[in-house]
Design goal:
By secondary structure, the protein is mostly beta strands. It is built from 1 helix and 9 strands, in the order E-E-E-E-E-H-E-E-E-E. The longest helix is centred in the middle third of the chain and has 6 residues.
Amino acid sequence: MAYPIPVFHFNVDWGGTRLAFSEVTGLNIEAQVIEYRDGLSPEFSTVKMPGLKKFGNITLKRGVFAGDNEYYQWLNTIKLNKPERRDLTISLLNEEHNPVMVWKVKNAWPTKITSPDMKASGNEAAIETLEIAHEGITIENNA
């Protein structure tokens, strides 16, 4: 019997030091819809056609470590509309640590960093968030 792959075993190659991320979200692709109707059409409705592809921002979450400034260094490369763009590879892994599904992200750059919320009565790990914009995703399912 075949079972779906669990989502908790994954790897992110983000162009920096190899880090363990706790969460990746925003791996979506959307085709915008173009509605069109010509004046000679016998139908009283529009035809729907695929338009431009649209990609949402990707959010990466990870624990905060003392002395680790790579997120901030990447964010600081944004000057005069010339960010340092990187290609990312996000892999969902099987039990043997081999990629089963791979998302290849093109020309990514950081748009937002969110620091952890601090609470005197909390006991959870400090997690920071990096939001990145990009110019496309390709998906490989290596079944």
